[in-house]
Specification:
Number of strands: 10
Order of helices and strands: HHHHHHEEEEEEEEHEEHHHHH
Distance between the termini: 23 Å
Mean pLDDT: 95
Helix content: 40-55%
Radius of gyration: 21 Å
Structural class: alpha+beta
Strand content: 5-15%
Strand order of the largest sheet: 1-4-5-8
């Protein structure tokens, strides 16, 4: 059913990413899991494939392929390594702010670098005290002549330790229009990156903390106008964050199904393959059903986003379904593999750990449900996908797609 959304170009892209993942990423996973260190070399090798430029126009060196293509890229990488899928999704989230709010000069400078993988962008919104409550942030940016001076902290910044430029939202005044967005190069004096901390899952990925102490940046580094910071944060989260994380969950979910099919075919009980037991078949069927529904929701939402249709609710629903169903299927798979699933020589325990990382970013499931309720009740405050439509109509003649 989900193949209805895919063109031959999408299928070719899937094969390309899958081949890279199986040959270049899979052999390194065991070492990544053991060390827990940030995987710099592999991240940059992936970036050099040009996949971070999926939603960057070809005039800036990007693929111009759209959100569905981006979904497939992240899904296939995450099927092999959710950490590397998360790396790509976080970088493409960083692309959004320049795509939608950058000046022509900023686009000409940054987008080609994002597209060729020589520069990895991030977005830094969440703070230790206010969490994901955007309007509660305390980091400040004070205008000083032809510069701004930033002070404060940002946490859970995806790609914190490999990013070259951070998209930082800070307070320039009171109220909801008192937030502004800035591009802050990682080597700016006054910006400190705190040491990488170990995490439950996504080992090899980094989402750390940035500290700004009188960090001075040119006024030309501001994205959009003063007061656009809230829009930068919300639109990036809705239009990129939710579908991106949906794709990571989808890749994990496919990996879970692949693993239980292998396990139940190889493991023998009562003289037959384990999957001959009715209760095992029922669990595998349930996992497959969840995965089919999750993929439909993901592809449908990305397809709507590509065609410029207002689809905020579809994006929320896709993130909700995928994050929840991947965790449910991971638990069901654990019940199938039992004690064998707990050992680190099988990948299932990694899938379970990784799946938990997708729940909170871009809104927990409770947030998605609240927003979906507001939409049903007619209480929503407008659609970001209508305010910033970005339709893609990929051509078979596009050499990058």
């Amino acid at each position: 059913m989900s193949d209805w959304y895919l063109t031959p170009e999408h299928q070719r892209l899937r094969r390309e990413v899958r081949a890279f993942g199986e040959t270049e990423i899979a052999p390194r996973i065991a070492a990544m899991e053991r060390s827990g260190a940030v995987e710099h070399d592999l991240a940059h090798a992936i970036a050099r494939q040009g996949w971070i430029g999926a939603t960057i126009d070809t005039s800036y060196g990007g693929m111009g392929a759209g959100h569905l293509a981006k979904t497939i890229i992240i899904e296939e990488l995450s099927r092999i390594s959710a950490a590397m899928g998360a790396m790509v999704q976080a970088s493409q989230l960083g692309v959004a702010k320049v795509n939608h709010f950058g000046t022509q000069q900023q686009k000409r400078f940054w987008l080609p670098r994002f597209a060729d993988g020589s520069c990895l962008p991030t977005i830094a919104v969440t703070e230790p005290v206010s969490g994901s409550h955007v309007l509660g942030m305390e980091t400040t940016a004070v205008r000083d002549g032809d510069a701004y001076v930033l002070s404060g902290r940002k946490t859970f910044v995806g790609n914190s330790h490999i990013g070259h430029v951070h998209g930082v939202v800070a307070r320039t005044g009171p109220g909801s229009r008192g937030l502004s967005a800035f591009l802050v190069e990682a080597d700016r004096p006054g910006l400190t990156l705190l040491p990488h901390r170990g995490t439950l899952g996504l080992r090899g990925f980094s989402f750390g903390e940035l500290v700004f102490e009188q960090c001075r940046i040119p006024a030309g580094n501001r994205l959009g106008d003063e007061g656009d910071g809230r829009d930068v944060a919300y639109s990036s989260s809705v239009l990129y964050g939710r579908p991106n994380l949906t794709a990571v969950s989808l890749g994990i979910h496919q990996a879970i199904l692949d693993e239980v099919v292998r396990f139940s075919s190889d493991r023998v009980r009562y003289g037959k393959a384990l999957h001959h037991l009715t209760n095992i078949k029922l669990k595998i069927g349930q996992i497959n059903s969840r995965l089919m529904t999750a993929r439909l929701a993901a592809y449908h939402a990305a397809h709507l986003l590509d065609t410029g249709v207002a689809c905020d609710s579809d994006l929320m629903n896709a993130k909700l379904i995928n994050a929840e169903s991947a965790m449910d299927s991971a638990r069901a798979a654990m019940e199938i593999e039992a004690a064998a699933g707990l050992t680190t020589d099988r990948p299932l325990e990694r899938y379970l750990r990784d799946a938990h990382h997708i729940y909170a970013p871009a809104g927990t499931s409770d947030i998605q449900l609240l927003r979906l309720a507001e939409a049903a009740l007619g209480l929503d405050k407008g659609q970001w996908s209508r305010r910033w439509p970005h339709p893609y109509l990929p051509l078979t003649t596009n050499p990058r797609f």
